[in-house]
Every structure is written in C-alpha cells, then in structure tokens.
C-alpha cells in the first residue's frame, strides 16, 4: 500500500502567502490513492484540479509581469487611486525588488503547478484504469496531458526566472535550482515524450481545455523560439520546422479563423484557430480578473450591464498632451500602431446575438445602451477616453497651458488612456454570454508569426511577410490592407509591431522584447533604457529563499 508524501506541496503552501482563490482542498498527512479513485469522475476531478490551477496561472500576476513591465500598458496614478505604494511604478521603471508580490506569486505559482500535476500523474500511473471504467488509451492521454502541463509550468518559470528546481517526484525537500540549460532540456524531454502520445485534434472538435498534440508541439516551438534568451543558443531552425508542421496539420487539424475576432469571441471554443485555452463561462470559472481592471467605474453603463470595475489599466499613450504623436521612441504607442482601416481599431460595441465590433473603449462613452459619466476629475461629465496621459484639469491652475503638462506615471486622470476590450462583453439581454469567451493560451496565428520571425532571421523576408499578411488580411474590410508587410519594410521593429498589434494584451510582450534584445536597451513612454542585462530575468523572491536555503539568487539582485 502506497502512502503519499506531500513534501513539495507542503513546502510551497507553507510559504505561499495568499493562495490562489480556488484552493479549497483539505490536506492530510497521509492518504491512500486506492480509496479516492473509485469512479471515472474521481479521475477527472483529480485532472481538473491541475488544470484549474493552470487557468488561474495564465492570468493574474503572470500576465502583469509580462505586460506591465513592457511598452504597451500602464497603471498610472489617477488622483488618489492606483499608487499602490509605488508598486506600479517599480514594474514600469524596472525597479522591482525581491519582495514584490507579482514576482513571488509567479515563482510560487510555477512550482505549485508542477507539484499539483506531478502529484496527480504519480497517482494515476499506479491506477488500474479498468477499475474505474476507463482504458489504457485514456490513461496514456491523461498522463501525457499532465506531463505537458508540467512542461508548461517549467517553461513559464524558465522565462521568468531562468533555471528552476527540477522535481521528478513530490518527495524532495530543499532542492537547489538546476541550470538554465538543464531546465531547458528537462522541458524539451517532457514535451518530446508527450507529443506522440497525445491525441490529435480532429476538424470540428471544440476546445474545452484539454491538452492535445498541437498544444504540446506549440509549447516546444515556443521553447525553441526563445532559446537564445534562455540558454544562448539559436534554435530557430527547430522552431520553424515544428511551426510548419503545425500549419501543415501534422499535429492536428487547425486553421486560421476567417474573422479577426473568431478566436477571441464568445464562441471561441469552436474556432479552428484555438490550439489550447482555459475555459470560461458566466458564473462558472469566469476569468474576469484582468479585464475588469481596464474598465472605468461606469463602463458597465456603456456595455448595458450591471456591475462595476476598477479603472486601473490602460494602453500607454501614443500622443503627447498636445495631441502630437511621440516620435522620440519606436516602441510602444500601441493604439496608433493599428492602421485606421483596421476593424479592431473601431470603438467596441456589442451588436446583439453574440456579435460585436471593435476592440477599444476610446472617445465619448455613449452607446445605445447607456452613457458612462465621470466620478472623479470629470464628475457628471461624459467620460471620453483619450490616448494621452496628463492632468488636463490642472491647466489654468497649476499649469499655464496644455504644452506645459507633464506626462508620467503620476499624471493620470479617470479618463486617461485607451481601454482594451479583448474579451467581449454583452448587454443584459444576453447576460449569459458575459465572460463566455475562453482565455486563449495558444492559437494558430502565433504559430504563423513564430514561423515568420524564424524566416526573417534566416533572411527570407518575403516569405516572412507573406505569412504575416495571411493573418493581417482578415483585419480589414474585404481584406484590403492599406499597409501590408513587405520584404522592404519588415525589420525588427516592424516585426515587434506586428506581434504587438495581433497579440495585444495576450500576456507575451515582455518575452518578445527580450527575444529582440529591446527590453533593457530601448525606450518607450516614460521609460528610459537601463542597459542592465540582469533585468531580463526576475529575482528569486525573498520568501522562496527563506523557505529553501539551497536556492541561489539570480545575478544582479544580491
């Protein structure tokens, strides 16, 4: 009879601080697997726990670290709101510390994800599936899904921190960090073993959160794509081969969605473009956290819904307080990077029946459903979101004219910045669709862009341009793209612009900047280049070092 050990899980939980909100298990010092796997539902419940953690993991603090340290979003101080003890400034200015919460939760979340998936995998390996009405084929699929999930958590942890402690069971304590290369090779080995044993997606199948062959192949492509950043080795050739295979259908049946919002909308679980996603449904694992922070306190009147929001996040400004576009830096300016004819650049408006247009809250917030009014600086005035950051209400009082206004993280107002509506919102008539769009983690457009960048780096500019334009054309009426990518205009900055436009707000921007060596060398709005290479990785959090004296800190943070 096997007695389970929870050493790794207990270490993580003892030093966890605030746990993820869906942690409701009761933990016992010893449990017997044979007593709790009695039915197929018991097996699925164990699987779901690991995937529920993954659903939490792909948003919240990991999303913040990817986006709020980069050049597309900001959380400015708005009157008395959002200073947060300087936290938002530290991430924007690259002055984070070993005690900052987003970093700790990301370290903890990565290793806890490994622990949960590894624990379940070990239990299911020893289970006779025939006793619960399942087959050996089911067992292989479940085990390899969990193995792929372990690889995913390690992949993200490698991206954030570099080498991690490598666990092959949950019985180890105070394990030191492996090297970057060892962690890279561990991830690679897990995925290479899992890929041929996972099922392929069949045309017409919905994506409901399970990991198929295409998802594991996509993760391996991501690993190779960023290998120079991770281990100083170019693996773009290997990445390109996998991407081409995914596009060719070797890992399952996937196709680009014909519409710009098909992979993002209310019914995106039916999109042929989605390779892996975290399911979301109104009042059932809905993922509303990060999008609520974009919306003004009264945005729900514009949507025609009830509820409230936090009025924190917004796009970094493309324009100075005077209205002139910034020309001092190439990065950032996300709203103006969208061509005027781009269907996504239209103001967001729900059209009914699950259909909508546009992707931004910009300009006067008046819709057929209601009007959003100010509650702070613009109290009782119609809110009009502007692509600028400045305290315009201080003109004539503290500043003589608009040209005198500063534009920094400290100068926000309640209407500051364009707001992103990446996950569509219905009105009350279709309330059941609220938060109904699944959180897409990997989609085929990313595969096209990875392959395009690989070809660009190989000197095949026209082939790269063709791949990007294949995705771009759906963003314009009748495919009439006014600014297509060409062999002549495609350079590192245009490539970064294309990543930024297509995947705005999808939690990847920091990684893209690092891969192109722009994260610590280039400027963007209210952000000067530090030139400090160690900032390409986050520090090992102080709480982690306190809980495991075998851990060593990353260079530059001692």
TrEMBL record:
Pfam family, one: SusD_RagB
InterPro entries associated with the record: SusD_RagB_dom, TPR-like_helical_dom_sf
Chief location category: membrane
Single GO cellular component term: cell outer membrane
Signal peptide region: none
Family according to the record: Belongs to the SusD family.
Name of the protein in question: RagB/SusD family nutrient uptake outer membrane protein
Organism per entry: Draconibacterium halophilum
